[in-house]
Amino acid sequence: MKRTHTCGVLKKNDAGQAVTLVGWVHSRRDHGGLIFIDVRDRAGITQVVFNPQGAGADLFKEAEKLRCEFVVTVTGQVTLRPAGTENPKLSTGEIEITATKLEVLNPSKTLPFEVAEETEVNEETRLKYRYLDLRRPRMKNNLVFRYKTVKVIRDYLDNQGFVEVETPILTKSTPEGARDYLVPSRVHPNMFFALPQSPQLFKQMLMVAGMEKYFQIAKCFRDEDLRADRQPEHTQIDMEMSFVTQEDIFAHVEGLMSMIFQKMMNIELKTPFPRLTYAESKSKYGSDKPDLRFGLEIRDITEIVKDAEFKVFAEVAKNKGVIRAVCAPGIAGYSRKEIEDLTKLANEFGAKGLAWFKVTAQGMDSPIAKFFKPEVLATLKETMQAKENDLILIVADVPKVVIESLGRLRLYLGEKLNLISKKEFNFLWVVDFPMFQYNDEEKRWESEHHPFTAPNYDDVDYFETDPGKMRSQSYDLVLNGTEIASGSIRIHRKEIQERVFKTLGIGAEEAQEKFGFLLEAFEYGAPPHGGIAPGLDRLVTLMLGETSIREVIAFPKTQKAICPLTDAPGPVGEKQLRELHIKLR
Question: I want to staple 474 with a disulfide (CB 3.0 to 4.6 A). Which of 185, 197, 203, 488 is the partner?
């Protein structure tokens, strides 16, 4: 190595030492005959001073040519900074290097954006020059934080008896929810590998193999529409265990999360995490991943208002719809325009309208108040736990529309009214998900999670009669309104797996073609097993307070699934296509 020290370690007790540093010119300042540069490497920043006096004249001339992001080697003597010029913001702020030698290892062109300072830069530009973006302190710190988090994870799981096993990247296309990324085979014409959406089937095979406790920091690939918390490839903390119950898995995950937050953020999490059933979560918060850092609980008022003279409510109740409401604190003074904006938001999720009552000192104020008896309004106020100056917002419709529109309104108001603590980390288990959901367009049942999820065995009689009533042994871990992990107890018996396939419309021949190896494995003493897969990208994003997982991934894709740095995806040559037996349309 050219250097004797990194740029973040020298202190005042190193004064007098001759040292050599390497790094980038972070900044350059010309102060009345002295030139100061800050040299930066991954460890930190050290100030270097060039003096034109005596033997330093030629060196000073070289220093005048330095610009930001030049790569340099600097040799000199560690000296104490003059009293009053120390920089407490730097770990090396008590000293500086009086330069005796300078070598430019590589100059730099003018930068497309500032590296030394955090300035607003278009994301496309940041990703095009990602190697420069990653020099910025925030991005560098994000990647180091992610690395250290993974180290904590590996250490914890190792201490719990887990074994890390890599599973294949080139595998078979299986229906697991999203589209597969396909890889054509040169050796086998017209045949394709698929990149794994998850290591799901392989980790189940490892349980059949007797591994008992497996984990992997696993790459997963899904060809789906992107948003802030999605990428074509993402990383998950994949875990699978044999001979366990749901409670065992919860205990392992809560222990892991507690260790991560204690080691990385010095935060003690309170365990066990609270739990809500899927039905409770949707009913009270309008979401299966509710943010519980604030209230605004959705309440059912159907029985209270169904017999009022207000025809809209009466018709909805008569047609087996529901009428639910949220109480927003302190905004009874909202103007008609502001309430119309809330109505438009509810409209986006299917609501035909938004009824409202302002709670005032004089009573309940609303254009529709005249249709309700005083005792009904009093009961409504009591049920909603409304206080003076609150605004009660009501949606009446089919359950799906009411849940989605009020759930979205709840989140909007939580943000707008500053009800959400940005420093709080609120974990929650959501359990008892439905086993199946019905696809109205395709007129068939689909798995709520994936087809290898075990049903609640109290509900198996509904397989043939009413699959919509079946609950699964699946669960999600939610953090601050974001799903960060999904898992389940798996099916481990062939006959149950075949009944699930049949319900999903996967016939015996198709099941054998796509999952024959799994069904056969179940006949060789497959143990009961289950697992979960926390999303590493999402978890680190939330811990760092970032808004997009692209901020914690070294080389992410854009929302259009392209890489501006490498211009991927791109065309390939005709020769490659011929080798793969592919002709483009």
Answer: 488
Measured between alpha carbons, how far is 93 from 96 in angstroms, rounded to an integer?
8
Give the percent of the chain with pLDDT over 70: 99
Mark out the alpha helices in 134-231 (DSSP H runs): 137-159, 200-208
Residue 54 has pLDDT above 90, yes or no: no
Angle at 567 between CA 565 and CA 568, to 5 degrees: 110
Query: Whole-model pTM above 0.85?
Result: yes
* DSSP-derived secondary structure letter, 320: T
DSSP states of 226-238: --TT--SEEEEEE
Sign of the Cα torsion 349, 350, 353, 356 reads: negative
Task: Give dist(CA 475, CA 309) in Å, integer.
Answer: 43
Confidence band for 178, pLDDT divided at 50, 70 and 90: confident
Q: How would you classify the pairing of strands 95-106 and 181-184? A: unpaired
Task: Using the structure block, give the residue that is written with the tokens 């009270």.
Answer: 284
For tokens 């107890």, the residue is 489
- Whether 241 and 249 have beta carbons less than 8 Å apart is answered as yes
Q: Which letter, b or e, does each residue of 95-109 get, where b requires 16 or more Cβ atoms within 10 Å of its Cβ? A: bbbebeebeeeeeee
Q: What is the pLDDT of residue 227?
A: 72
Q: Domain 139-276+426-553 belongs to what topology? A: BirA Bifunctional Protein; domain 2 (3.30.930)
- Residues 317 and 310: beta-carbon distance below 8 Å: no
Name the band, by pLDDT with cuts 50, 70 and 90, for residue 585: confident
Report the DSSP beta bridge partners of residue 104. 72
The structural domains of the chain, with segments of one domain joined by +, span 12-106, 139-276+426-553, 294-416
The superfamily in CATH containing domain 12-106 is Nucleic acid-binding proteins (2.40.50.140)
Residue with tokens 């005959």: 33
Q: CA 370 to CA 311: how far, in whole Å?
A: 12
Q: How many CA atoms lie within 13 A of 456 on its CB side?
A: 17
Question: Does residue 175 sit in helix, strand or coil?
Answer: coil
User: Which whole number is the average pLDDT over 153-162?
Assistant: 98
Q: Which pLDDT band holds residue 13 (cuts at 50, 70, 90)?
A: very high
